[in-house]
Amino acid sequence: MTDIIHVKNLTKRFGRFTAVNNISFSIKKGEILGFIGPNGAGKTTTIKMIIGLLKPTSGDIRINNTDALKQEKELKKIIGYMSQKFSLYPLLTSLENITFFGGVMGLQTGFIKNKCEDIKTRVPSSLLHRKTADIPPGIRQKIALFVCLMTDPEIIFLDEPTSGVDPEVRREFWMEIYRLKKKGKTILVSTHNLDEVEYADRILIIHQGNLILQGEPESLREKFGKNSIEEIFKTAISKHESNQRRI
Ligand code: ADP
Ligand code: MG
After folding, report:
1. What is the 8-class DSSP label of residue 69?
2. What's the pTM value of the predicted model, to 2 decimals?
3. Picking from 105-114, 190-199, 209-218, which range would have the lowest pLDDT averaged per residue?
4. CB 83 within 8 A of CB 76
5. How far is 86 from 141, CA to CA, in rounded Å?
6. Which of 3, 36, 158, 166 has the least C-beta neighbours within 10 A?
7. What is the Å distance from ligand 2's center to 203 Cα?
8. Is there an atom of ligand 1 within 6 Å of 38 CB?
9. 35 alpha carbon to ligand 2 midpoint, in Å?
């Protein structure tokens, strides 16, 4: 598989605070990359820099072999992003959100109408006509993902899509992620649920802005001689912290 995204020495400082510290990694075309780390680790900041919503303090980002920091407009067309925070308008219904965002994305009216019909086959109509503030979080996340996929993006960034949703919806979400992979999409999913990244092809662990570990779940298990990702995660963090103390 070829690399579709290259991140090199990426750093973001907010004043004197370093949120992302000199991280480098790549994402292969067609893979599911699980991006894990506790709250405040720097996941959202990293994603926002890659998709062009936040300017890095330093570092390089290449997407499809072009400089992402210079070709923002072109790249936006092939990128889908589902933000961590409530990404739909809470006072609009799901159908109104789909129509609104479809318009913002420059999609044709007929196409948007078809999308509204499409969602009716997946979500009960009564929920689609309710304000998104008043529908269950799992359904809301489903709608948010649907909106993010309306332009059929090649590269998809999902920032904690399963946070606050129940295990069943989480499973459904992962099934959808697999369907996307089958279509050849490249997907980065961030989460702080360690058990979820088992499903990813590769895992990146970020802690206090530092990328402390990356690899395939299976090879990490072998390398650490541990079965659970949670134990691997804990070991990697304590190793990183004792290295920090030595410096
Ligand atoms: P995560 O997504 O892993 O929970 P974030 O990337 O949101 O972490 O945040 C990383 C760190 O950067 C946190 O300590 C957060 O408070 C800080 N941070 C994020 N955005 C800003 C900002 N605009 N100004 C100052 N600090 C920020
Ligand atoms: Mg976040």
Report:
1. T
2. 0.94
3. 190-199
4. no
5. 9
6. 166
7. 16
8. no
9. 10
For residue 5, give the DSSP letter. E
CA distances from 106 to 151, 153, 154 (A): 9, 14, 17
Q: What is the distance between the alpha carbons of residues 214 and 216, in angstroms, rounded to a whole number?
A: 7
DSSP result, 77-124: TTEEEE-SS--S-TTSBHHHHHHHHHHHTT--HHHHHHHHHHHHTTS-
Structure tokens at 21: 């510290």
pLDDT tens digits for 111-145? Answer: 999 999 999 999 999 999 999 999 998 899 999 99
Query: Quick one: tokens of 20?
Result: 């992302």
Nearest to 98 by CA among 137, 52, 129, 77: 129
Tokens of 51: 């998709």
**What per-residue confidence (pLDDT) applies to 156?**
97
| Helix-helix angle 137-148:94-104, to 10 degrees | 20
Query: Which atom of ligand 1 approaches the CA of 45 most closely?
Result: 6
How many other C-beta atoms are found inside a 10 Å radius of the C-beta of residue 176?
A: 17
Give the residue, by CA position, lying nearest to ligand 1 atom 21.
Answer: 14
Long-range contacts for 98-107 (Cβ within 8 Å, ≥24 apart)? 98/143, 98/146, 98/147, 98/150, 101/147, 101/150, 102/147, 102/150, 105/150, 105/151, 107/150, 107/151
Number of the ligand 1 atom closest to the C-alpha atom of 206: 3
